[in-house]
């Protein structure tokens, strides 16, 4: 695949019917051991309620490793505890690598619904790290 066609695929992944929509909670996966984006990783976001975690949405990272539409358009997040789950074993299996973590769950507290919350995940087959991004 040429650089131009690869770049075109990246641009296509970013184009959505409503290009102005950006989820109030987003995520990004980087494969630290390879120095590449975590492409096409299944992601789920949930919110804690009185009965446990309830799924809000499922998505998949794009070719740049991002989920700019993690929450559905029109969803207004509320204060509370959220959990994002990345299906890392499935990803590493697709590229022919073993991994120690079959999935990564990041639990965080959304204290101010008016702010944007970005959850980056840096992963390798045997380690991961995360932080609150911007």
TrEMBL record:
Enzyme Commission number(s) of this protein: 3.5.2.17
Keyword terms of this UniProt record: Hydrolase, Purine metabolism
Class of enzymatic activity (EC top level): hydrolase
Transthyretin/hydroxyisourate hydrolase domain span: 20-133
Binding annotation for substrate: 28, 66, 131
Protein's UniProt keywords contain Transmembrane: no
GO biological process: purine nucleobase metabolic process
InterPro entries membership: Hydroxyisourate_hydrolase, Transthyretin/HIU_hydrolase, Transthyretin/HIU_hydrolase_d, Transthyretin/HIU_hydrolase_sf, Transthyretin_CS
SUPFAM superfamilies: Transthyretin (synonym: prealbumin)
Pfam families: Transthyretin
Reactions catalysed: 5-hydroxyisourate + H2O = 5-hydroxy-2-oxo-4-ureido-2,5-dihydro-1H-imidazole-5-carboxylate + H(+)
Record-linked SMART domains: TR_THY
GO MF, one annotated term: hydroxyisourate hydrolase activity
Keyword Metal-binding: no
Protein function: Catalyzes the hydrolysis of 5-hydroxyisourate (HIU) to 2-oxo-4-hydroxy-4-carboxy-5-ureidoimidazoline (OHCU).
PANTHER family for the chain: 5-HYDROXYISOURATE HYDROLASE (PTHR10395:SF7), URICASE AND TRANSTHYRETIN-RELATED (PTHR10395)
Family: Belongs to the transthyretin family. 5-hydroxyisourate hydrolase subfamily.
Quaternary structure (record): Homotetramer.
Protein known as: 5-hydroxyisourate hydrolase
Naturally occurring in which organism (per UniProt): Mucor saturninus
């Amino acid at each position: 695949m040429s650089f131009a066609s690869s770049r075109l695929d990246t641009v296509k992944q970013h184009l959505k019917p409503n290009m102005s929509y950006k989820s109030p909670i987003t995520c990004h996966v980087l494969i630290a051991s390879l120095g590449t984006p975590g492409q096409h990783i299944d992601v789920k976001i949930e919110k804690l309620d009185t009965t446990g975690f309830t799924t809000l949405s499922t998505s998949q990272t794009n070719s740049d490793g991002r989920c700019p539409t993690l929450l559905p358009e029109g969803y207004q997040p509320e204060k509370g505890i959220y959990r994002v789950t990345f299906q890392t074993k499935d990803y590493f299996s697709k590229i022919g690598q073993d991994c120690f973590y079959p999935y990564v769950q990041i639990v965080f507290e959304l204290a101010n619904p008016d702010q944007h919350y970005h959850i980056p995940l840096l992963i390798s087959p045997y380690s991961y790290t995360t932080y609150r991004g911007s």
